[in-house]
Amino acid sequence: MSRKVRLGVVGFGAQGSSYAKFIADGLVPNIEVTAIADVDPAKREKIAELYPDVQVFDDYVTMLESGVVEAVVTTVPHYLHPQMGIQALERGIHVLLEKPAGVYTKQVKELNEFAGTRPELTFAIMFNQRNNPLYRKLKEIVDAGEIGKIKRTNWIITTWWRPQGYYDQSEWRATWGGEGGGVLVNQAPHQLDLWQWICGVPQSVFSKVAYGFRRNIAVEDEVTAVVDYGDGATGVFVTATHDITGTDRFEILGDQGKIVVEDSKTAVVTRLNKPERELSEAMDMDDVRKMFQGQFNPADFYTQETIAFESAWGAQHSGVLENFAANILDGTPLLAPGTDGMLGVRLANAIHLSSWTGKEVSMDFDEDEFLAELNKRIAAEGKFPERA
Questions:
Q1: Strand arrangement of the beta sheet that strand 71-74 belongs to
Q2: pLDDT digits over 281-296, tens only?
Q3: Rounded-to-integer distance, Cα 223 and Cα 10, Å
Q4: Residue at 87 is within a domain
Q5: Count of structural domains, the chain
């Protein structure tokens, strides 16, 4: 039998328990869970009941130093991700972080820099949507230049409806000090990652953000952000947690085509026969008149292809876990290197900072300014310590 990576799961909440079950059910053939750590005694009892062969710990560091695990996946509150990542890497343990990589860029940068000192260890992040076959295919299309140079992107992703009871379930949720933000840090990090993974990293952002707009919370529940990629290319990102019917529509317009994604399941890819400007400049007034009269043959200008994939629940997450283990075992390239976690955190920070200052914010914004603004909000809550 081929060797399996001995994995420790940190936190036995919704995500941690799901990952343990995926592995127990055989969805990740190159991993075995050998330990689970959780601070809650009731959860430790549940772990022992469900997985009697797994060692249970009440302390994360004790688990790291037990010799029982060689890798961990961290499914804990966001602020703890960088700290726990560093603690594992310090002890020679491979790390798969749950998203987001952290709450603010200063702490994520510290994690990335430390990971750089331990290149022999695998450091990855759970961006499971990168394992979605549809988005992997679209990235290939964009990277190959099939729709030309990107001119505009739009993503409206409001399928995150959360009733008030969701926010009321714990004291830390939807707080600046406990969770570090709202929809940008809890629901939408996957889209912030995919947006940049496929379309590129913007240069700056201007945002209008609503805090406690339709829910009794301190953090954001609606976001509209406009990004500037440079050279005239722009993008718009809209997300919210109060739209009960929700929309998931992603458009990428290039100078030689277009991609329209619906519900993260199907995409219509339009490929122009020539760059749009060439088509425009080749049309005289007679051609324009015929077009207005309905004498327009699309085949003269473009072709269209519909792409659709079905992805079973859990397949994307289990695929990232399997890829993480494969990198440890044989060097298989990572789908989502841990250092990529900085991209989404940086964009979320920039969106927040723009809304707080009322200004357009560069992606190389002042990290100390952001942290000072975040700490103002944590102090006003009066529930949690400020962050350093």
A1: 55-57, 31-37, 5-10, 71-74, 94-97, 123-125
A2: 999 999 889 888 988 8
A3: 31
A4: yes
A5: 2
